[in-house]
Amino acid sequence: MTTFDQMSYGPLGKAVEAAMPTSEADPIGVWAASLSLYSAAISRRVRLDNRRPVVVWTVLAGRSAIGRKGYALGTASAVLGKVIGGFIHTRKRSGVANGPSLVDMLSGLELDTMGQDGGIDGRCILLEEEWASVLKDQKKCSKFSTMFRTAWDGKPISNRTKKDGLQSVAQPLLGFHAHITPGEWGKYVSSSEALGGSYNRLLPVLVERSKMLPYNNRPQVPDTSALKGAFEWAEEEDRVMYFSIEAGERFDEIRAIVEDRMAELPELLASYMERSAEQVQRVSAVLSATVMEEEISRDAVEAAWQFVSYSMASVEKLVKDAASNNEGAKPMKTPEELIRDVLNKHGGEAKASDLLRPLWGKMNAAGIKDTVEGMDDVLVVQEKTGGRGAPKTIYRLIDPEDQAGKPKLKVISGEGPKVKPKPVSSNPFVSLL
Description:
single chain; 433 residues; five-stranded parallel beta sheet; four-stranded mixed beta sheet; 18 helices
């Protein structure tokens, strides 16, 4: 079984190791949290040679209390306090549950630093210590998962508002670290989101208490002067991280191992591992930066692979345990499925208010509107009454083939007779109740 010693590397590894005698946390949990924090802190000027960001997103999965998840983050924060304490204090955020808020947060950080010495700084670290509660809210926004994935990729994200117009972030610098219990994982980490790629950007690791210490234990903060020097090196100028010849050869071997393993697994389980190779590249780049080297060594790749392979094993156990615990349980429906269910109950079409009412608490009006924009089997009809009031909005189930090439929004005038269409049972995605 993979141990912390196998994934430890450089001054960051030595600092975590030195902190462990006075910490009850799982050393791999401390390592995961440290990688997320440090990678986010250096992301402004450190990049991969393909211009992708180096941010490493991690999730600690452990049972309440005995998992010591908060203890792990606390230990990592203490270890890095003298190195990137200012970054953690000023750039940590939490509770972001919809796409527009994500764009607004990152755009705001860039605007706040515009004109400052060193240029625009949009770095941020999302720390979600109660990730399950945030996941519930994120499901109400159809845009969040797409923007979240795009931010990890380092590609532009944008949102348009009536008040501020277009908000955009050209190169998101978003770090992420979260905590969840295995039971919550099975309940809130949905298979549809996993298949869509939302969770293969994350490196979940199973954690548990490493030891029980006396009540009067006082955590000791190790010497991090070498790591502080590495952070200053990372901030001095743009750094482009690239593989040495030996490291590149080992990386190719790892890619083959990952793909062979994915081929053996069911599609759902394999979907969590689709970016494992790039995760190795990112982790090894961060580790090389801690020793002030732009050239990534084979040893750094090997240490990164030990961490990523531990995460792959953790995911496999989490997903299999969730499937075992949920046998016979009713799966959570996607926003699209919920909308179709309500429309079918109303005979195939419903006014906006009639659609919102049964979905209240699961989706809001804006969420319904955003979700319907991506559904080819729902037509939006705005009916003008001829008075001064706003037109009524009606959502109608249709056959996608009949609507091909036609506008998504239809505007009609006058009340006129209403004829409710029959539910479209030919659509395989519509479940008739």
